[in-house]
Write a structure and sequence with these properties.
Length: 178
């Protein structure tokens, strides 16, 4: 808590804003809407975004969520967020997600320790305020989820093929059809 005020000084906020303006608003914007539409829920807590570590070598997992199993027990649910016009939906996203799930599974204890602590910190700072639990326990297995949104005309055939070729993967679609 003591380091939050120095971190949020005007010079740092200006730097953050400049970097945010440079980001591609397509998938990043969709990712942000997934985050904001899932705030204040006990059953799913999106705890981090754009996750990487030295072994992932600049590859980044879009969102890391905690999915409630029972009570204060949660599982990691790794989310790859794609717009429906993304060519990676033709198969690359399955390998991408599988790589992240395998990586977090292999380093489960390190990720568990890190995110159980991060949960406590975010709760103390008031960033997470939905849960009634002061602490949580993260349990195995690690889950993966592909979230696809928009461009339904382009996406539907790719998603059908993706589900057929990778039935073990969970794919959710968020289209704006009226």
């Amino acid at each position: 808590k003591e380091q939050l005020h120095p971190f949020l000084q005007q010079k740092h906020l200006a730097e953050f804003a400049t970097k945010a303006k440079k980001e591609n608003s397509g998938e990043i914007g969709f990712e942000q809407s997934v985050i904001t539409d899932n705030l204040n829920r006990d059953c799913i807590i999106i705890i981090d975004r754009q996750i990487t570590d030295t072994e992932l070598k600049r590859r980044r997992l879009d969102l890391l969520a905690l999915k409630q199993v029972e009570g204060r027990k949660y599982q990691f649910q790794l989310l790859e967020v794609k717009l429906g016009n993304n060519k990676e939906l033709e198969g690359d996203v399955a390998d991408q997600l599988r790589c992240y799930v395998d990586h977090v599974s292999q380093h489960f204890n390190e990720y568990k320790k890190c995110y159980e602590l991060q949960y406590i910190q975010k709760r103390e700072l008031g960033i997470i305020h939905c849960s009634s639990y002061d602490t949580i326990e993260i349990v195995e297995p690690v889950l993966g989820l592909i979230v696809v949104g928009g461009y339904s005309g382009l996406a539907k055939s790719k998603i059908t093929l993706l589900r057929k070729e990778h039935p073990e993967l969970e794919v959710r679609t968020l289209f704006h059809e009226l």
